[in-house]
Amino acid sequence: MSGQDAATATATATTTVNTTVTALAAEAGAEAAEERAPSGIGASVPAADTRAKSEGTFPYAADLWAEGLLWAAVLRSPHAHARILSIDTSAAADMPGVRAVVTHADVPGATTHGRRIADRPVFAHDVVRHHGEPIAAVAADHPDTARLAAAAIAVEYELLDPVTDPEQAFGAPALHPDGNLIRHIPLRYGDPEVTGEVVVEGLYRIGRQDPAPIGAEAGLAVPRPDGGVELYTASTDPHSDRDLAAACFGLEPDRVRVVVTGVPGATADREDAAFQLPLGLLALRTGCPVKLAATREESFLGHTHRHPTLLRYRHHADAEGRLVKVEAQILMDAGAYADASAESLAAAVAFACGPYVVPHAFVEGWAVRTNNPPSGHVRGEGAMQVCAAYEGQMDKLAAALGMDGAELRLRNVLATGDLLPTGQTVTCPAPVAELLRAVRDFELPALPKDTPEDEWLLPGGPEGAGEPGAVRRGVGYGVGMVHMLGAEGTDEVSTATVKVVGGTATVICAAVDTGQGFATLARQIVQEVLGVDEVATAPVDTDQPPAGPSAHGRHTWVSGGAVERAAKMVRTQLLQPMAHKLGMSTELLQIADGRITSYDGAFSMTVAEAIEGKELWATAQCRPHPTEPLDADGQGDAFVGLAFCAIRAVVDVDIELGSVRVVELAVAQDVGRVLNPRQLEARIEAGVTQGVGAALTENLRTVSGLVRHPDLTGYALPTSLDAPAVRIVKLVEERDVVAPFGAKAASAVPVVTAPAAVASAVRAATGRPVNRLPIRPSAAVAAPNS
């Protein structure tokens, strides 16, 4: 194929893919726009992509196709730690249908990458540091050929002893040139000599939870005639992915374009660079579009997981149950590479005492490298691990004091104006006591009848319990907190454009809707501000200004704020000529129910009439107030805002078999303002269910660093049959005045709180300490004389 022909073919492929993604996304937006009511902030507006997903037209990356398509496969390390002595790709390259084989030697730019610390190789070359690490990639004309060719690559290894215990990482040989310690945070707050009248200690272990995305990772790379490349992936942070890819490809960022396809749900960093980079390299090497659709095993081995964490605690309290001092050591297993470990550790250390007033706190936190699977951003990272530990300590204190667990917590809860152990004042609404009272006072569920017809209610399902008489019911509590937006000096900013043409408004913003409902929220905002019924969101790509990652409730706050500001600017453009003619300011004109009316009712006109024939647009940014890094003593105003949640768990435990059934979770949450009631309820229920998985079943097990059963058979996700009844008892709408709309992040804090509540309830039922998540059957067997 000549160079001109290749350029024509790639341009055609780009056009085909662009047309497919844009058309499908536009179809989804147009279908959503047909729903005329309800509308605006506070209404249960249907999700913008509901019809497209239900009809199968949502543009997932796994469904994309381009002319001249090749298929990719990646060779991954079968070892957790080994030295690479040689890589022979000749057998793979000689196979019919194979178009290219790439290794570390073929990376034209930076050979390592990482959003925070660039310590992760594109392809391993001298040593492999974890099971499943990429070593080479193949492009072929058929997916089976690509997989066979990848398997034909001969790699000679010298096996090395893996470092799998994070406690041994301090004295082990360095796994990386920077050493094994990623970050150490000592937090010192108050007087270290103070002691309490009652002291309890505990050792807690949190397992490795996988984000287990609904669809495994997939992507398409299309070379451009100018020597650049376009990546079509379910990215949750397209501009960061673009910059990272451009550095590895040896290209300027403007020659790499990331187009966000439909995201099939995300509770973590949805698309790991280890999947994107081989695609782009193969497309640049072959001059053809290249597609990769990962298997579930590859997905488990390739992406990051929740940090396994070891926590040691000592709580001091007075005789009345008021906390005096908390001492803690937190050790987070980062796996082979740094990724988000520094940020996760900061959250863990800062929230180590929980949403409680603690006059004196001394916490040591470490994040270390091992040869275990890499850890990274998963919803509620850092906060979830410490919540399980400090709530375990509160249960121990309550038992030592002979006090009700809810009452002990109420004596110590944070409120607005209190100080965190980092020295930061809680300036946002903190209705923790109100949340806890709401779940405590909510009616308990009825006990199951002891009849054969109701055996399905017993732990383990039908015939799951040995004897109904062995079942004990327990009630426990969890109170959790998370931070919103980035932390420690992260520059949070988002840009949005609102255009009104021909009676239809379009929102252009690079905020990726990962299932949190941003596309729906953007439509509600424009409907509220402009009174326009038909609102669509443009497909996301890196030709748009950056909006940042989809995490920590950012897009509700930052991107939603940018959309609101842009819509208000368009509103001014629309109303200014009318106000001038009427001799009044625009503030005296209001838009409601699709009409523009003056304050005195003398002027009235429909919005449709006002915008007919006009083209209006405006671009705006939203940037919250700055934060600062934690200092050498763990002090500093590191967080923009906080969100809180209280959960009461009711469980039935078979004390002979150790099986646990979660009967009900009563939830009270600090939400700031309800923007979409139905969507908010769904987000809370989903977060609670994910937390139940972390409490009872989800643990990606490893043996000597090797992942056991990397599939959905060996990794036990909770199903609809495992999901408990979730009762949303109270949503506290106390608006945060510094946040657009006053709303707070909704989905992370129930994930953080639910595991602690379930563990607390199992303690109540069995009398055992329950200091490990997920809870093992042996830990749910009743203690003697309980």
From TrEMBL:
Domain (Aldehyde oxidase/xanthine dehydrogenase a/b hammerhead) ranges: 55-161
Highest taxon of the lineage: Bacteria
Region named Disordered: 29-48
Family annotation (InterPro entries): Ald_Oxase/Xan_DH_a/b (IPR000674), Ald_Oxase/Xan_DH_a/b_sf (IPR036856), Ald_Oxase/xanthine_DH-like (IPR016208), AldOxase/xan_DH_MoCoBD1 (IPR008274), AldOxase/xan_DH_MoCoBD2 (IPR046867), AldOxase/xan_DH_Mopterin-bd_sf (IPR037165)
Single Gene Ontology MF annotation: iron ion binding
SMART domains assigned to the protein according to its UniProt record, in alphabetical order: Ald_Xan_dh_C
Official protein name in the record: Oxidoreductase
Organism name: Streptomyces subrutilus
Lineage start: Bacteria, Bacillati, Actinomycetota, Actinomycetes, Kitasatosporales
